[in-house]
Design a protein that fits this description.
Strand content: 5-15%
Mean pLDDT: 89
CATH topology of the largest domain: Rossmann fold
Helix content: 40-55%
CATH superfamily of the largest domain: P-loop containing nucleotide triphosphate hydrolases
CATH class of the largest domain: Alpha Beta
Distance between the termini: 77 Å
Largest sheet: 6 strands, parallel
Strand order of the largest sheet: 3-8-7-4-6-5
Radius of gyration: 28 Å
Number of domains: 5
Number of strands: 16
Number of helices: 18
Structural class: alpha/beta
């Protein structure tokens, strides 16, 4: 039997697609097509069908044990500002049993929350994310598994393969990108069957962050060409050392979009990626003698190592051991030899190396990408909408019912009696627009399509981060009494309610909808 765990990673439509999982089919063929067992806890019918298709399973038996975890208590708390959210988190931690996990959408949030909680709480915390060293991540995980800490603050880098039975709560500090990710991460709570809590902390602005991540993962053809042309232009032979050299100053893509583009270029077989664990030294010897006693020893050793080719490409530490020199002295001698035109040399830092396979992106590959990317972008946006819809469920809804229905499982009860809505403890804010919302709608109307949401928020606040020319706009500072986060929250709410909308350009700008115009008109006509 051939068993595949986390089988949703096979599907491009899964929440955690991993291209290497697509190679499993070839392995199965090499093994003589044994019986297959594919396991996943978060597959919708669409993903299940894709898994079956990719693996080549014929008339498989599908066993679904059910998605309902009755011991998990789901809840959402909505906040206007980050300060309110942090205070709400402290209040929640005081009420619930430990241990638990707080998931964040970014490394920055993880670091910020870790520092905030250590300052404002007596509980014991550890931090886990992909930017930490392996030793630090291992220590944090061990501390959590061995109950040496109360709370682990983590990105989604933590969790796969971890089976701790007594996790009493899972907090999502901001919304994840899919219901599948949310369900999988909350599902780490209460595996011993005891009551456990799943809290989603929601700010409407969080949707914009996930929106940014989604657009970054689905870059335009123009952005792909821009990055690829940059790599080709500045490569040495066919190698481009350390992709971090591609900075935002060089090309107009974010680091998240850049990472996605590198991966796409690799999947297109336009580049290959290798990793250097140590610093490499490349030396080309022009002359084999030097009239300088201080450099004679170093040159003699280099000539001996180079041989007939008069070239060296070797791990720097290996060279230093062979000639018994410190790095400082060796580099000093190399620079001395360069100044005398005896050698040329280059140090290649440890890290990722991009090797160029093709010098140009074929048009048919770009067109195919555009087609797939448009479908994937729409799909990812619909997944995000499902999460936002979950967060904004109203008083006559049920969170458990919503989750089960999402995965295609019927929940026959009217309500679960356990989630915050069914227990009437939810803390969501009203969707009804107020006078400040009307001010925002009118300001957008007067500047229709000129600004993105961030700049519009700063304009309404009257932020002096904006250039001086913006201060002459009549709407500048018209909501100066509100916190900037409250303004962003209102912009997101009005967009969700279809009173505002953004275009689909690389740098989206904000517009008032026909519905928004009618709302403003009706509001003004109803005023005395």
């Amino acid at each position: 039997m051939f068993a595949i765990d986390e089988a949703h990673c096979i599907s491009e439509w899964g929440h955690d697609f991993r291209p290497d999982y697509r190679k499993i089919n070839g392995v199965i063929t090499q093994l003589g097509n044994p019986q297959i067992l594919a396991l996943t806890a978060t597959a919708t019918k669409e993903v299940r069908d894709d898994i079956i298709k990719v693996i080549g399973m014929k008339k498989p038996e599908i066993i679904i044990n059910g998605f309902n975890r009755e011991n998990l208590i789901y809840g959402v708390e909505e906040y206007p500002t980050k300060e309110d959210k942090n205070k709400g988190l402290i209040a929640f931690l005081l009420k619930v049993k430990k241990p638990g996990i707080i998931y964040t959408s970014s490394v920055k949030d993880a670091n910020d929350i870790y520092n905030y909680l250590r300052t404002n709480s007596d509980l014991k915390f550890s931090l886990y994310h992909g930017k930490l060293q392996l030793k630090q991540r291992t220590e944090a995980q061990d501390n959590f598994l061995e109950n040496k800490i109360d709370v682990l603050i983590a990105t989604n880098a933590f969790g796969m393969g971890v089976d701790k039975q007594d996790i009493r709560f899972v907090v999502h500090y901001s919304i994840p990108g899919t219901i599948e990710a949310y369900y999988q991460e909350t599902g780490r709570a209460g595996r011993d069957g005891a009551i456990s809590y799943c809290l989603l902390q929601y700010m409407r602005r969080d949707e914009e962050i996930q929106n940014f991540f989604i657009r970054s993962k689905n870059p335009s053809s123009e952005s792909i060409k821009e990055v690829f042309n940059y790599i080709c232009k500045y490569s040495k032979d066919t190698n481009f050392y350390e992709d971090s050299e591609i900075t935002d100053d060089d090309i107009k893509v974010s680091k998240f979009e850049k990472a996605a583009i590198i991966k796409i270029l690799h999947d297109m077989n336009l580049i290959s990626i290798d990793y250097l664990s140590d610093e490499i030294c490349e030396i080309a010897i022009k002359k084999e003698s030097v009239n300088d006693k201080t450099l004679f020893y170093t040159l003699t050793e280099l000539v001996r190592m180079a041989g007939k080719n008069k070239e060296i490409r070797m791990n720097l530490n290996t060279i230093l051991k062979r000639i018994d020199m410190s790095k400082f002295d060796f580099i000093s001698d190399l620079n001395g030899l360069v100044s005398k035109k005896i050698i040329n040399y280059e140090l290649i830092p440890a890290g990722r190396v991009i090797k160029i396979i093709e010098k140009k992106i074929p048009n048919d590959i770009l067109k195919e990408h555009e087609k797939k990317s448009a479908i994937k972008l729409e799909y990812d946006m619909s997944k995000l909408k499902s999460v936002v819809d979950y967060a904004e469920l109203q008083d006559n809804d049920c969170r458990r019912k919503y989750l089960l229905n999402y995965f295609g499982e019927e929940f026959k009860e009217q309500n679960c009696g356990k989630c915050d809505i069914c227990r009437k403890t939810n803390k969501s804010t009203s969707n009804k627009p107020d006078e400040n919302d009307i001010t925002i709608l009118f300001a957008v109307y007067m500047n229709d399509g000129k600004f993105g949401k961030m700049k519009m928020g700063k304009l309404l606040k009257g932020s002096y981060e904006l250039e001086e020319k913006y201060r002459e706009i009549e709407e500048f500072g018209c909501l100066s009494a509100l916190q900037i986060e409250v303004i962003y929250d209102k912009l997101s709410k009005l967009t969700r309610n279809a009173l505002l909308y953004t275009n689909d350009s690389k740098y989206p700008t904000i517009y008032i909808s026909e519905k928004g115009k009618k709302f403003v008109s009706l509001y003004k006509s109803s005023r005395p």
